[in-house]
Amino acid sequence: METLYLLVPLSLMLVLAVVVVLWWAVQDGQFEDMDGADYAILMDDDTPAGVDDTPRPGRSSREA
Length: 64
Description:
Elements: H1 2-27, H2 36-40
């Protein structure tokens, strides 16, 4: 019975901490864009960094 006097308040504090963290996450906007990360990997640019692949005016694609 003495352990219940310790475990019940500890569990209530843990539940309160979880509720506070979830409330903070919602208020901070953590759950605003749930699909953004899913599409970000699909829309990734596959060209390596530093490579300019834009066509230049006046040159055909065969002239490189």
